[in-house]
Design brief:
single chain, two-stranded antiparallel ribbon, disordered N terminus, alpha/beta
Amino acid sequence: MSALLVAGCLLLPVGRAQAPDRRADLDTAIRAHQGLSGILASEALLRAADRGVQVRVIVDDLMNDAPARMLLALAAHPNVAIRIYNPVMTVGTPWYRRLFNILTAFRSVNQRMHDKTLIIEGELAITGGRNMADEYFDYDYAYDFRDRDALVMGAVVSNMAESF
């Protein structure tokens, strides 16, 4: 096994300096860019992309606090594809349009993707309840959430990858 997968979003090296070799797919409901966990996960995915790994990321628009310029910079990498689920609130949407969307189409705005999955090489996945935010990884001094994750292997992983 080339990587230890933690909480469905962080890649930590085990046995080798880097992992994976071909593909990494991440979908996450909350991506907190200011916290250490978001920075570490982004760095791990960017390093993988620099090595030639195809990285695909889906983030929920409503709870994503990454600035549009940060997502656009990551998406500019030839090996990174970022998709925004239900992009009506933050990415590229001016504040007055966001307010209009909330007032006129709250049901549509509130359609959220709450998945938390990391799939490596299409063969191994971790899924569970953790969002990509410091309070889920013991990096927050005020909060320490204890969600659970499951390691998934076998044929079901290819079914999970179809969401990308």
